[in-house]
């Protein structure tokens, strides 16, 4: 009996399986730790402060409504509806902007840092001017108000002691200095830090629209845009437009405000896009505005313009008794602000490069090539 031997299987070409623990695993790259301190906590704190400031600003709207109601009982007459609407709209827009920026700062958004930094700079500069203005005019205003109260028939003849008046004035000026100068300085110092910018860049890597222009240019664009909104609201509420030596009121005054608001809107977008024509137009039109305002303040009678708008004699008398109106201090303060802004625009020329015209030789060389 023959025994058949089973042939051995031929070796296969399949590789020997490697144990799973020996197979190399592709590791995801470990992100390198940031080389700067993380300032997200500071951004959160400053964002909360902005939201609180926004809520406090919104609380001014019911106070304005209360003032409008109380003004009906005052000798000067009731507040005009346009004044109430314009003041309420201004505070609501400001409150909304502060809350919006606060939320953006809490979320470490780059656009929130840029806008907060720009607004804080303007807040600080205007705060210095406002504090100086109040320091010079507020004592005269309070003294005039006390004299009017004493001259009112049936009013108490007891005068406010000089020491008490000094304490009140000091408190008001110190509060204004803290709110208009101290608070924006804190915002400027914090949001100007390089580690704050780096923290926002790490947590918000997508380029926002605010980074399409340098921060100084963004600031000028923002001024023109806010100025356009202000002109529109002023034209709706108080259409008294200074125009080369006289005040234009009514529909014509509103039309002037509307045209100027349209111009500022165009300048805001043109400057933001770094268009040289926008810069030139701004530099040429701002001095014209300065000349028109100065000529009107020096020659025209503002009380006559207000009387054409339907103000009563009592309201005109109250306005005339105010040192702010009688001395045109607010109007001249506006002129000083425009002069400072004009100097700022001239300084911005470095960011607006006029495209060079190629010479004939360069054009021929390009065609030959």
From TrEMBL:
This protein's UniProt keywords: Membrane, Transmembrane, Transmembrane helix
Lineage of producing organism: Bacteria, Pseudomonadati, Acidobacteriota, Terriglobia, Terriglobales
Listed transmembrane segments: 43-70, 82-103, 115-138, 158-191, 212-232, 244-267, 279-298, 330-348
Protein name: Uncharacterized protein
